């Protein structure tokens, strides 16, 4: 019998690529997104069913999961992929921007995981694959503290959950995206700004430029990340954490090899 994968944030980027990949492999795919009425590609693929789901809205999460189970019977793998980035100096962030970063990247996976647990317990197993970032295991740029906070929190949540879900045969995986080119994650970045405070203008301009000119050779190719999700979902890999992309790997090696003070000053020097 075909297996079923449930994915959040499939309107673009990694989520969409993952949905198409698993459909091609013959899996059933529950592809969820905030605005299914706009979707024209995934709706054409026979083994993909599209459901409306905003991860910050528990009612929508519950309804989408109920509909997916009613459609496919059993969900084997859940991919917590939906995410966005809030960048810019913390001092300039609005209350709403701070709350939204947490709501999407942390509370979102919590909402999805909690709503799926009764189904996975009834099935005596299941797997949550969580899309994190190298920014979830280390720091890398100034004015990224809110995004760092959200992915560090996701990492802590998933690592902590390991102990309570392992006895129930419910597996957890973290995929640390190295920052990938070829998708529109940049469009999902909210920038904190305040025209009355100029103190962060220079560094903000530097980081914006850096993001616009991201060197894809150091980032994970989106297909490499899909291949990692494939290996985890099919059991070819049982790694708890998988870091993708040279940039993240280089930073992690540095972080492990020197005291934190040296790591911080080395990274900071890149932005002087
Ligand atoms: N690309 C990178 O450089 C990078 C690096 C490290 C980690 N990541 C992580 O990788 C994951 C996928 O991102 P991506 O690179 O594929 O970027 P993307 O193309 O911007 O995809 C993000 C997806 O999340 C969805 N989303 C945002 N807020 C949502 C909400 N409240 N409820 C449901 N869906 C929501 C977006 O849907 P809408 O179309 O409705 O906005 C979109 O489908 C994210 O978790 C991101 O944090 C990305």
Automatic annotation (TrEMBL):
Keywords: Oxidoreductase. One of its GO terms (molecular function) is oxidoreductase activity. It comes from the Bacteria. InterPro entries: NAD(P)-bd_dom_sf, SDR_fam, SDR_oxidoreductase. The keyword Oxidoreductase applies. Pfam families: adh_short. Belongs to the short-chain dehydrogenases/reductases (SDR) family. This is SDR family oxidoreductase. It comes from Paenibacillus psychroresistens.
């Amino acid at each position: 019998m075909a297996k079923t994968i449930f994915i959040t944030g499939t309107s673009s980027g990694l989520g969409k690529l993952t949905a198409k990949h698993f459909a091609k492999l013959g899996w059933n795919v529950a592809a969820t997104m905030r605005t299914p009425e706009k979707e024209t590609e995934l709706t054409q693929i026979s083994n993909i069913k599209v459901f409306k789901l905003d991860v910050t809205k528990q009612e929508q999460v519950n309804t989408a999961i109920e509909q997916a189970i009613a459609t496919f019977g059993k969900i084997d793998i859940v991919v917590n992929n939906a995410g966005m980035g809030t960048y810019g100096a913390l001092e300039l962030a609005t209350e709403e921007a701070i709350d939204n970063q947490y709501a999407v990247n942390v509370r979102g996976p919590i909402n999805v995981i909690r709503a799926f647990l009764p189904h996975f317990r009834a099935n005596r197993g299941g797997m949550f694959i969580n899309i994190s970032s190298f920014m979830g295991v280390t720091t890398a740029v100034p004015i990224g503290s809110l995004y760092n906070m959200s992915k560090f929190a996701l990492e802590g949540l998933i690592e902590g959950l390991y102990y309570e879900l392992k006895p129930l045969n419910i597996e957890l995986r973290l995929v640390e995206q190295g920052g990938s080119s070829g998708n529109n994650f940049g469009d999902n970045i909210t920038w904190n700004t305040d025209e009355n405070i100029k103190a962060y203008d220079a560094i903000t301009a530097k980081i914006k430029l850096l993001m616009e000119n991201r060197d894809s050779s150091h980032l994970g190719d989106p297909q490499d990340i899909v291949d990692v999700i494939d290996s985890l979902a099919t059991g070819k890999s049982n790694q708890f954490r998988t870091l993708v992309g040279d940039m993240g790997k280089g930073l992690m090696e540095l972080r492990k090899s020197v005291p934190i003070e040296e790591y911080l000053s080395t990274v900071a020097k890149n932005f002087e």
